[in-house]
Every structure is written in C-alpha cells, then in structure tokens.
Amino acid sequence: MDDCLFCKIVNGAIPAERVYEDERAIAIRDVNPKAPAHVLVLPRTHEATLSEYAAQHDNGDIGHLLRVAAELGKRYGEERGFRVAVNEGGDGGQTVYHVHLHVLAGRPFTWPPG
Length: 114
Ligand code: AMP
Ligand code: ZN
Prior knowledge:
The protein is an alpha+beta fold. The chain has one domain (5-105): 2-Layer Sandwich (HIT family, subunit A). It contains four helices and five strands. It has helices at residues 5-10, 50-56, 59-77, 89-92, and strands at 18-21, 25-29, 37-43, 82-85, 101-105. Strands 1-2-3-5-4 form a five-stranded antiparallel β-sheet, covered by helices on one side. Bound molecules: adenosine monophosphate and zinc ion (ZN). Adenosine monophosphate is lined by residues 5, 16, 28, 30-32, 40, 87, 93-96.
C-alpha cells in the first residue's frame, strides 16, 4: 500500500522507534503517547482493520499479534498491568487504517473507556 503511513514505517521509508520486530510484526512507540508507555503492534502485511486482518489470516497469525502485545505489556507494565486496545472504524476511533494493537502501560486505566 503506497499511501499507507504504517506500511511506510514497516518498510523503513518513514522512521519510527522500533521496540520489537519479527517476521510477522513490528512494534513502535506511538508518536502521541496516551500513557508513560504506549506502543503499537503492526503486522507487516497491509490490512486496514482488525476485521479485514481476521478475514485474510489464520488463527496463528491473529494469535501472534496478541502474543506480541502481551509480551510488550509485561515488559512495560511489569506486575502492575497494562491495557491492549484495537480501534476499528469511526465509532471505534480508528485514525490510521493499517490494523494495529495499542499496548498502554505505566498508569492505571479506567473502564469503560470514554
Ligand atoms: P488509531 O487512532 O487507533 O488508528 O491509532 C493510531 C495511532 O497512531 C495514534 O495513537 C497515533 O498517535 C499514532 N501515530 C500516528 N502517526 C504515527 C507515527 N508516524 N508514528 C507513530 N505513531 C503514530
Ligand atoms: Zn499499511
């Protein structure tokens, strides 16, 4: 996807602070963090939304993203905990249409989200 911001980050055309990478995914620091630690897990392939990703990939790929999010949540939240979120579509508050998991840690989070 030539015009996708996160594809450009995945392929290195736009810089980002990488905190994790493997053959299926990378994780970067969010440029506008909502918590002391706020990172985004991005699959290397382009699908716009979680629904599209789930339609195109097997359970192993889908589970891998969650596993990476859990590892990063543990890294940054230590024993205190963390929040994982995926926004989809307008009501979900999605702004970048390359699926990503938010991992937030370093402060308490309220429920339900606003
Ligand atoms: P969402 O609103 O769920 O689509 O999340 C998109 C996230 O991407 C927001 O938290 C933004 O702060 C973040 N973001 C936008 N541009 C960049 C960038 N160039 N590098 C890192 N994070 C970004
Ligand atoms: Zn993309």
